[in-house]
Prior knowledge:
The protein is an alpha/beta fold.
Amino acid sequence: MKIDFTNVNLENLDNYEKKAMKAFDSLMKKDGLGNDFLGWIDRPSDYDKEEFERIKKAGQRIRESSDVLVSIGIGGSYLGIKAVDVALDNYFDSDRSLKLIYAGHQLSGQYLKELLAYLKDKDYSLNVISKSGTTTEPAIAFRFLKEALEEKYGKKEAKKRIFATTDRKKGALKDLADAKGYETFVVPDDIGGRFSVISAVGLLPLAAAGVDIDEFMAGFKQGQETYTKNSFDNPAIKYAAVRNMLYENGKDIEVLVNYEPKLRYIAEWWKQLFAESEGKDGKGIFPVSVNNTTDLHSLGQMIQDGKRNIFESVIEIEENDKDITIKEDPDNLDGLNYLAGKTMSFVNKQAMEGTTIAHVGGGVPNIRIKIEKVDAKSLSELFYFFEIAVGVSGYMLGVNPFNQPGVEEYKKQMFKLLGKPGY
Length: 423
Ligand code: PA5
């Protein structure tokens, strides 16, 4: 992975170096705010190998017994899984023997009703994922899905098809799993939800889907080796410093841009990571994302011409898995023969370069994040890069990047309206 700041004015970046290095030092020494949630930093080289093997075995068992695994979770217990799942699968005909389906990431009754109907003639298993074990959305979805599974297979067989990923000791889900005898996996105490894709949260469903989780861990390890280097040349530190410099210059919206639709959920994961980590105490860069070239025909107008408070971070894929070449057409009625012999990757790249020139010219600083290709290893390295960056960036901003107190507010109001005891 490489990061390119050519299209950002770095004249004043020196003023941010000291602050960035101090923030990084605090992150590495684990003496800053939220330091009890930094387990993800060492996790790539220090994880429970026994549980890792158990995850692989459970994944294989799920694949052998099921066509579908319903992954039930929200926020950090959902987005990382979906991001990798979508990025690594084919657009149309999947060559996987098991399909991942998601539930518990919203409260739509229609979604649940249709999901239950869809599952009726499928062989399926459930992975209910909640670090706290008390989150309403997955808890409700699990209640419906568990009932349907037990009805279909009987309680004894259903028990073998339910996997719970939750806290080691506490929470309603842990109690329920113990009472019912489900196989459980652990979300470590010192890893917050949005950093948890490296744990059983991400590993079990991804392993079940056939993703190579050894490669996935290898990418995290590569990330640890690269982005924990104590140098201002460390791209994660520099990215954090540049973001803070831009923020202080009035750029309070960051747009994560991709030109490959399968990276869409990588951006959703990134939005959670940065929004929950930085958006507090009246501060923070608002993270949004666009999927180009689709969104060049909608949000592109705003980015080019709207209020000048935006900067972009563009993910470029250097090596595409599949490509297709445009052919010569003897009639040329569509006027496209000037593209004959060019690949779609080439055309897409020119769209990216052209857009960069246009946006930079329009006053939108542009950071380029280059990943070699889209595979399990490069995605986890990218995750780790962003995780270190958000820690440094949050400390530079003066917030605790590892809590999310604001997420509780809507819950209180919703519980009051729903009549939950104690509210
Ligand atoms: O990052 C976070 O901690 C949150 O967004 C959680 O991931 C989300 O609320 C889900 O929580 P839980 O896994 O406890 O159900």
